[in-house]
Every structure is written in structure tokens, then in C-alpha cells.
Amino acid sequence: MTGEIRVFVDLNAATMDESKAPYGMIENAAIAVVGDTIAWVGKARDLPEMYNVVEPESLGGRVVTPGLIDCHTHIVHGGDRAVEFEMRLNGASYEEVARAGGGIVSTVKATRAATQDMLLADALCRVDVMIAEGVTSIEIKSGYGLDIETELRMLRVARAIGESRPIRVKTTFLGAHATPAEYADRNDAYIDDVCIPALRAAHDEGLVDAVDGFCEGIAFQPAQIARVFDVARELGLPVKLHAEQLSNLGGAKLAASYGALSADHIEYLDEDGVKAMAEAGTVAVILPGAFYTLRETQAPPIDLLRRHGVPMALATDINPGSSPLNSLLLALNMGCTLFRMTPEEALRGATRNAARALGLTDTGLIAAGMRADMAVWDIKHPAELAYRIGFNPLHSRIFGGTS
Ligand code: DI6
Ligand code: FE
Fold first, then answer.
1. Is 319 close to ligand 1, i.e. is its CB under 6 Å away?
2. Is ligand 1 within 6 A of the CB of residue 142?
3. Were both Cys, which of 3, 151, 204, 332 would link to 145 (CB 3.0–4.6 Å)?
4. Residue 38 CB contacts under 8 Å (≥ 6 apart), including other chains
5. Largest interatomic CA distance in the chain
6. Which atom of ligand 1 lies closest to the CA of 81?
7. Which pLDDT tens digit goes with each residue over 74-92?
């Protein structure tokens, strides 16, 4: 390892290492960083002599966690759906909203009309809120273009976000998010004419890190998702899937059969699907924001996931319709309060397991060899991160070893 050496002391390190105490907690710890990599972490009294070459930096007894990771976002999009939100609360039905041009259709229209610079400026406002909450990695999906050019533009914006801010971006192609108006009732034709060609073009341009789909009665059937996943496999891209959000079409089982990184939402997941995910090592991404916004009643099977050892991640699913949730900390609180996850499960869901859901092996954990992506908090116990509602105790963020 080469680069500047930094040594942090007077801290309690919630390393999230599962083999240690709860939260992988090391009290009265020290962390040595060389360049952008964690070189050593342990009790301060055990700090190796070789790191006594620099003036240690005191963190004032604060708690340090891995940088937070939001592993499921639609943070790039045009426009917003505030008026639709108001219509619904004034009694309009989902159908009346749709007839008035609401729903995903309205976001597609706004996204197609926006330039790359407009989409970037809009998204950066939301990304800055995430950064201010200690997020160091974020996943960003396409899926509001639903034509080749706009899907590519969304992914170019996602890449530009990673170049414009101290945050790591993993992109996901979500052409199979919805069928655009010009292909109404012609889902298969849309998959053939637009979705798959857009995926190939995006891959050729180096814009795609993973491929996703929306497997639901109002979106795409498993057989249609499989056609997109077959192309992803041909291109050597990992897959993930919006599955069992509103019904059980066997989406999670399909995703697991492709060795998916994750199956997301999964409110209607059954034990058969849980077992398939466990066998495939597929992460369950829990998305309380959509459940809360849509006032759903079917919670994801947290106990089944625990029993079968399926890793659980937690994310905002920030999108202008079903989950306009810009706070990963609030998502932690929702995961606990709405779905009865423990605060430790919630924090692991926004660090170690969120990294797993993105196929990242060098972050989400404070350990030697991992990227020095960390968050320093004005809290006494890590449970405070899920406990408080609408409170951001971030003191400072370290991204790639730099504050
Ligand atoms: N599931 C959802 O809840 C969102 N997309 C998806 O796959 C809905 C997105 C929107 O309402 O704009
Ligand atoms: Fe989503």
C-alpha cells in the first residue's frame, strides 16, 4: 500500500464484521489508513509501531461506521409527482391519476424532455443530501427513458454523478421498468425493439454495471424478464430484480436461477423463493419507502429470511412516485419500525449487505484491505442511527481516505 498515512484515534469502530461483537464493535479503537485503503483497525493500545510516524487525529470518542451504501435508487429522473400526490390525497383514484397523465408515464415524459445537464443538476441536489448523511456508495438505475437514447442519457448522467461528487456510483440498466405509451399492450415488442437494443448499446458504451427489471403484473412477466436476463448473461453482466412487490410471480426464484445479486422489495416472497435466494447467495433488498408511500400492508418475510440466512440489505428506492425518500437514515428507521428489523440488521443492510447487493467486495466493512470509506457520527451507540426519526448525526465523512 502506498500513499499518505492517516491514523484516527479516540473512536469506537462499528466495523460491521459479523465475526466479532454486535456491530463488530471495537471500543477505544484506532484506524490506520494508507492512501485510499484501510491498513489496520483494532484497539488503540495495539496500534503497530509502524503507524507512529504521523500525528494521530482524535475523533473525540465518536462512533465510526463504514460509509453508508444506498444499493437501490432511481435518483436520476425528470420532474416530480407532487401534484399526483396531492390528487390522490384529494380522493382521486390511481386510475384517475393515470388518466390525467400521472404515474411513471409522467416521469418518462419529463425525463425524455430533459437534457443531460438538466438531469444531472436535478439529481445532484438529491445526491448531495445522501452525501450529507454519510453515504459513500450509491446505485443508480435507468428506467425512465424507455427509449434507447434516453436510457443511455440516464446512464451517462449516473456516470457523471460519480465524476462530479465524492461518491462511488454503480449503474443498473432498468429498461424493463415499464412499457411506454407508444408500445401500449405490446410488451414483447418493446422488449425486442427497445429494451434489448438499449442494453446492448449501453453495454458497448461501458455504461452498465448490472441489469434489473420490474417483474410484476403491471410491468413484465417472468418470461419477458428472462429474455432480458439472457442478454445480460451473454454480455457478462450481473442481474438483480424488482420482485414480489405487489404479488408473487416467482420473480425472486427466477432471479436466483440467474445467480442474481439481489431481489428487491419482496413483500410477497414465499418460503420457496427464500430458499432459492439462500441457495444462490442472492441478497434481499428491503425497501420500506415504497411500502410506506403506497400504504401497503404485506410486509416482507423478515423472519423467513433470517431463518434461511439470506443477507438483508436496506435502501431508499428513491424515485418520484412510489418512494420519494431521500434519506437512507430514515429508511433504517422504517426498516426497524415497519418491518421489525433490528438496528444492527438495518445498519448491516446499509453497509456490508448493501455492498453485497452491488457485487462490491472492497467496501461496507471497516477492515484491513477495504476502501477507506467511513462515516463519523455524533452518537454514543450505533442503534441511534436507526432510532432517531429525521435526525442526521453525521460529524464527518471519509471517502477513499480523504475527509
Ligand atoms: N417499483 C416501484 O414501486 C417503482 N418502480 C418499480 O419498479 C415505481 C416508480 C414510479 O412510481 O415512478
Ligand atoms: Fe425501485
1. yes
2. no
3. 151
4. 31, 32, 366, 367, 368, 369, 370, 371, 372
5. 69
6. 12
7. 999 999 999 999 999 999 9
